[in-house]
Amino acid sequence: xxxxxxxxxxxRVTEALAQVAGRTGWDQEAMMPRGAARQRSEEMAALEEVLxxxxxxxxxxxxxxxxxxxxxxADANLREMRRSYARNQKVPARLAAELARVTSLAQGIWAEAxxxxxxxxxxxxxxxxxxxxxxxxxxxxxxGDPYDALMQxxxxxxxxxxxxxxxxxxRPRLVALREAxxxxxxxxxxTGHFPKExxxxxxxxxxxxxxxxxxxxxxxxxxxxFSSGSGLDVRITTRxxxxxxxxxxxxxxxxxxxxxxxxxxxxxxxxxxxxxxxxMGVHESQSRSYxxxxxxxxxxxxxxxxxxxxxxxxIGVASERDFYRAVNAVRSGYIRTEADELHYNxxxxxxxxxxxxxxxxxxxxxxxxxxxxxxxxxxxxxxxDKPSNGFMQDVHWSIGLFGYFPTYSLxxxxxxxxxxxxxxxxxxxxxxxxxxxPSQATGWMRDRLQVHGALRTPAETIRHAxxxxxxxxxxxxxxxxxxxxxxx
Length: 488
Known about the structure:
The N and C termini lie far apart (64 Å). The radius of gyration is 22 Å and the shape is globular. It has helices spanning 2-30, 37-55, 58-66, 72-89, 93-116, 119-141, 146-151, 160-183, 196-209, 246-263, 280-294, 298-312, 320-327, 341-359, 368-380, 406-425, 429-434, 439-448, 458-466, 473-486, and strands at 219-221, 227-230, 233-238. Helix 5 (93-116) runs antiparallel to helix 6 (119-141), helix 8 (160-183) packs parallel to helix 20 (473-486) and helix 16 (406-425) packs across helix 20. Helices cover 64% and strands 3% of the residues. It catalyses: Release of a C-terminal amino acid with broad specificity, except for -Pro.
């Protein structure tokens, strides 16, 4: 297999360089001094030029023609390399480098403009990002749907029509459940002061309980929490509000779900095309199941209630049941990352519709804020009061991640399938969760899904883990049972 061996040897270097680029991006969001932004944008563009040259090297085409798979691993690596090579051949090197440069700059501009509530300062660079991504989409789509073309970066095989159908299936039951939950007596709220260091201490403890390996990772602060890296270096971030600890704790659990997927991929796949998560939808299945179906479950909340009282004293909630209700409170809030499980997908639907219109040229950046505000008030019944609570709240558009948002809801759907299968095989799970031990569920995810990386396509990954094709029914049934009980 000389062609395959040469191909994989070449690809390992490309994968290693991509990890360096990713770590540089992590540094920009977590550690980089603010004044370094312009230089960093040039560094990111230079790295992208090198990566693009490797990803379009003519030798790849020759090797891919000659290479044959000797087993399932080789077959999967060739599948991923062929897909990557075909995609990168369509994008000019100039455009790839310019996208890297502009999105690096835009991330810093977004962060400062968001803090200052200055939409005008952000709008010009966002317009440039949109222009470049439209150009890229036109190259990739070759006359087809530009949004579908961009989605392939995050969910190979996905399409806007399939996402719209999924949302159409989910919306009526979500809205009905939301209305019932909002009509019930309001959930209690935590009160008190929750010092930063105590929150981070508890966040680290919870991360370890969920299986995150700090010998191969670290926890830092960022404006918008994220996970970065794979294999032996996987880093996570969170944020802290000393008046509201759930943002820190549940953002940490969410990012740990992503990180554990990357840390637990089999060592043999390290720095190969399948040595990482297969798609963002499958990735989100891990973060959303860790955060919601495990971390917000009643038994785990019972344990967390005790730990929070140990650390913070009285927190304004009188019982484990009331704490569980507080964790899962249903409220029409502005912020997607802080939304309850019923509102969350409605947040994603809004973003999906707006970004699809942007990429199709049906909406321009100058009209985006007004379109957002009108849609938000229609969907949530609340008027947006400031840009950081509106179209500037998420980092995704500033760094060009158009086509990413629907994978959050797809991840919720996958998580419903996975957790239904896990619970059928783990009858003692709730008893373990009541002791603060999620290892039965996280171990099941590791063995059934995470170790395999991108060995299978996204849908095949879920089918292999659960024995059934992906479906929205398990998620909707789970939400129905949970929030009907909470409304009592």
